[in-house]
């Protein structure tokens, strides 16, 4: 799992980022071009994915809520595998780690004892914390909005250590069945990576997104809200270029660590008996609508990378089926011959794994909240994205004609609005 890693299918980033190891993994399996998270923020998304329940059902809609405080008895995906006899180990960020907590507390957040036999968090070494070049592009207004080209090697950074630990555990376990969670931290902020990855992206090669002049403005609750929006509105073209360069460097650094894990699968000839799934916890805006973050109901935040490679599958395939991350739990139970321990919110993707042209669902749903009383729910169909807010505000985008969601068209398509509003009414009620 990567963190804050967007799907780079957009018009201006398609050829920008170097991810050779993701390409290697795609060659083994199916890439899902329309995969959607249930909440575009770390903790809610991960909790939803690991339980197979929508965020409306878990009640986890922020990074301050712990899974076991809300759902003490839920059987998570790694826990189910553990109960079935698999060794279950977590390296890095699978569940949300939380901010400013020591390792022991971080491990508790990762559900040590129920979901995992072992769980380990990591931090940069002294050398890895030495920043050779970098700055906070908001002048300190947002502490996290900092980039840095770091000293040291890959293993002076958490992701390098996570890769090394994952490889070591795979070798140690041998033929023992296992569920390993390899949770890379990048390209999440702060945007720090070893300097050599920044060197791959000269500043003059970086072209930030430019919002077109005729783009439909949206309400602040949709995007551009709060202190983040105020800080981003002050960024210069140079600031955006620096951020995008750092995001690309972090992405390629993460990709290199993924490559080390793929290497051990090659070395141990494990592809014919291992299910490999690559996901990000959600997407990310890299300048669209002057937003540098997630937590919106736009395509860039709701859609995330998903690659599945399983024994017996034909590789290098692409699926355009709509899928949701709640589909991963029932898919893995099917592949492993296990039984869902609770009612599944998603569906098994086995039909798509057998034939990528198959469509398993007609809609994908995402939730965001702004306050206890204000929340937005989005439905994505093959053509449309419809966002419905609890105060009655509505937005409709035609992604066939407008893939970057630049023009809001609800007034021109009242029939579509009414049909999609009815689908949102069918979602589970939001748990307090």
Summarize the structure.
The protein is 29% helix and 16% strand.
Description:
The chain is an alpha/beta fold. The protein has one domain (20-425): 3-Layer(aba) Sandwich (Alkaline Phosphatase, subunit A). 29% of the residues lie in helices and 16% in strands. The protein contains 14 helices and 16 strands. The chain has helices at 20-26, 42-51, 55-58, 67-70, 77-83, 103-109, 158-173, 195-198, 226-232, 237-267, 299-302, 328-336, 350-354, 414-425; strands at 30-32, 35-36, 87-92, 118-120, 131-136, 146-150, 178-183, 191-194, 276-279, 306-309, 317-319, 323-324, 364-369, 375-380, 384-389, 394-398. It has a 4-stranded mixed beta sheet, with no helix packed on it. A 4-stranded antiparallel beta sheet has the order 13-14-15-16, covered by helices on one side. Strand 14 and strand 15 (384-389) form a beta hairpin. Helix 1 crosses helix 10 and helix 7 (158-173) packs parallel to helix 10 (237-267). It is globular.
Features:
about 425 residues, alpha/beta, Alkaline Phosphatase, subunit A, four-stranded mixed β-sheet, four-stranded antiparallel β-sheet, 14 helices, 16 strands
The helix count comes to 14
Number of strands: 16
Whole-number radius of gyration? Answer: 21 Å
**Unreliable stretches:** none
Please name the CATH architecture.
3-Layer(aba) Sandwich
Order of helices and strands: HEEHHHHEHEEEHEEHHHEHEEEHHEEEEH
Strand proportion: 15-25%
The CATH topology is what?
Alkaline Phosphatase, subunit A
